[in-house]
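Protocol step 4 of 5: obtain the predicted structure for the target chain.
Materials: sequence only (see below). No template structures provided, no constraints applied. The aim of this step is simply to have a reference model before the mutagenesis design in step 5. Sequence pasted as it appears in the construct record:
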Amino acid sequence: MTSRTLLALGAAVLAFAAGTVGSDALAAGGVAPAAAAEDRSDVADPVQPLIRVTDRELRRVDTVELDAESLVLRHADDTVADVPMRDARSTVSLLNRLLGTPSRTQTAVGDGGACFPAGTTYTWGGAVRVAALRTPSAVGNAVEIRVLKDSVRGRTGDRVELTGPDGVQVGDDVADEIATAPRSDKVSFGSGDSRAWQLLLEAGWAPDERSTGDDPTGDDPTGDDPRAEHDDATDGPTHDTGEDAQGTNGVSALTNDTEVTVIGSPMPVHARRSC
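Step 4 output (structure tokens):
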């Protein structure tokens, strides 16, 4: 593996260790400090009620799926809860009930690198990491979520599967998906046989009219503009989600060669930092 690939993956790991990526998370908004998430107060947007799921329903959950704009709790093919990423309180509360008590870390502005917001990061079993932001991003998400393993043990002791869209999991080989994805949906790091990739699995979080091209919603894991060294962005974007400094946002997979190592949302491709 080349030094460029190692540097890119190392930068990505640093970002996840801090619990968040996203340089616009300091935009003004209506989400109060996330430190109170576990006592179910002052975190979620007051307009949006806490999503309620009974203990009986929650015990049936066998899969947690990270989509572009929500976290979906499923039992087989049935949806138990579809939690929008604008609702930090419900996200943290339901995962606490499903997976048990998380480790918790307070992150100050700038922890882990420039543009990192303040917030509280919750991690369950080293497998699911939720950064509850003190203020929402410009597109409205109050949490940023990373899936680091293919499963995690739930509160009851049973394993809960962790996936991205279409069942993609950490550890999967996505060579075929990388080969067939349009250039606007992927970024390569490294060269020759030693490549790592960011692959957009599902687009979402379109910037609204108040967003600006100089205020990106996330970061390229290398911290560099991928257009400067790669030709992956030469084709036009396939999604009308702001192919500018904000990139195309959504849920993405990071790979080591073609094996998935992290699934995260929001995580835009072809985004350029300027903060």
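Step 4 remarks: DSSP finds four helices and 13 strands in the chain. The two ends are 31 Å apart (CA to CA).
Proceed to step 5.
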